[in-house]
Each structure stands twice: as C-alpha cells, then as structure tokens.
Amino acid sequence: MPEGAHSTTNVGSEAGGFRILGSTDGNLRIAAWGYWPADVVSAFNSKAPAATQALVAVGVFVFDCKDLKPQGAEGQDAIRALFRTLARLPFAKGLIVKGNAMTCMQLSRLLRECGAEKRIEFADAEDFGS
Amino acid sequence: MGSAEDDVTKVIYKFYDALEDLLRARGTAAMDEIWHHTDYATTSHPFGSWARGWTEVKVNWDEGAAVFGVYKGHEHRSDRIGGIHDLKVVVLGDAAYGTGIYRSKLYMSDGELNLSLNCTNIVHRIDGVWKIVHHHADQAQPDWQAAIGRMVQAGSS
Q1: Binary contact (A102, B149; C-beta < 8 A)
Q2: Would you call B156 an interface residue with chain A, using a CB distance cutoff of 8 Å?
Q3: Helices B4-23 and B54-67 sit at what angle, rounded to 10 degrees?
Q4: Full-model pTM
Q5: How big is the CA angle at B2 (ends B16 and B125), to the nearest 5 degrees?
Q6: What is the residue-level pLDDT of chain B in tens, covering all 157 positions?
Q7: Measured between beta carbons, which residues in chain B are less than 8 angstroms from residue A99?
Q8: Any CB–CB contact under 8 A between B51 and chain A?
C-alpha cells in the first residue's frame, strides 16, 4: 500500500454501524452511527480494538460519534473494550467528534470508567468539516 | 375508577415520580413500568436527540440514571429535584396528551442549578391501561447542559 494509503472496514446499515479507516501513516479514524444491533456490537468488539494496533506514537485517533446514539449495555461494553485498549497505547492525540449530547455524556462516562479520560478529548464536528 | 382525564393525569404525575426516582439513584423500574414498550415509543430529553422505539427509549432513561448516578446534591435533602407544573390534559378517545412546565433545582458544588422547560407527554390506552408512549422536553439552556457535562466528566457533582 502506498504511504498514507487507507484501508476501510464497513459494518452495519444506515440504522446503526461503524467504519474503520486505517492508514499506513499510523493514524486511525473510526466513525460510528445510529443504534447498534447485536451483530454490529459483535463486529465492533472484534475489529475496533484490533485496529488500534495500527496507531503509532505520533499518530492521531479520531472516533467520529456525531451520528452515534446512546448504546445499550452490550454496545457500551464494546466501546469500553476499545477505550481500555487505547488507554494502554502510546499515541499523540485522541479525539471524539461530538454529536448527540446524551451520547457525549455516555462516552464521557465510559472514558472515565476506563481511565482514558486524559487521553481522549471531545471536539466539535465543525472542526472536522463534517 | 376515575374519569379518563383523571387517569391520564395520574399517569403523567407517576411519570414525574419515576423521573425523580431515576434522578435520585433509586433505579429505573418505575420508569420502565410507566411506558408502553412499543416500537412507536419516542422520547427526547433536555440534553438529547430523539430516541425512537422502546429499545432506544429505555437506553436513554438508563443513561439518564447513569449520568445522575454521580449527583449527590440531594443525598441529605427531602425536597424534590423536580416536578411538573401547570399540567393540562386533553383526552381524545384512547389517546391523550398533557402539556406542562417541568421545573427542577439541583444543588451542585458551585451553587444551585435551575431548569424550567416546556414538556409534552402522550399517553395511550391499550387494553384499558393508560401508559406513556411519548415524552418531549425542550432542550435545556447551554450552561445547564455544560454543568451536567462537567459533572459527568468529573464523576462528581
């Protein structure tokens, strides 16, 4: 793959899903939307924490949640697994793109529970041109 | 059994009692009970977007309970956090709606945090039982939302 080239994983439907956009330059972007059914939760559990291995010490992690709804218990567990993995990894900057205020509160709570609140901060969607 | 209007009024007051339970970390059982668990249930909160269908509606109330799980301002107080005022109910067959103003007061570490919002609740009678199928509260003012956000981030009120 050429330098900086991207690989994409898409899971789910318009109603709920996620997309992992990895790159060879050590950055990682995950976009998530809607309310996740069980099959999406399962896929996120297996793919998202593994994808973080692509992050390098100078890399940037972006979790685009502007269209994500608050998740049920299983979805929250899947996000916790991602946050716990990230809390242990070296990377330069972590950002969550904000949307639904209730989702932000859920993600803020999950970050705190996973000890990742100092590693990942919230950002406005406008800052990302989205 | 009272008039339909009386029954609907009681359901709406019970909804706000259930909300009080949820905000005071007394669980979500009463909130779960007051709703018809239907695909057309909908809710919107002072700091949220629409939840559509009972699955999403329940997740929103559960998250509301989690958010306020760290609120300790009423731990040693007997006054209510909030309640519905100026409630007006209209019954139309097996459907009814109530409009009112929800007022609440939170005691945060840096002072009181007041809220006053217009609210609408729709109640549906299924098999003779009136329950909530729709709840809408106006969005709270930005400073109120920001204060709740800080509470969640800090893990304390």
Answers
A1: no
A2: no
A3: 50
A4: 0.89
A5: 65
A6: 579 999 999 999 999 999 999 999 999 999 999 999 999 999 998 987 899 999 999 999 999 999 899 999 998 898 999 999 999 999 999 999 999 999 999 999 989 999 999 999 999 999 999 999 999 999 999 999 999 988 988 888 8
A7: 49
A8: yes
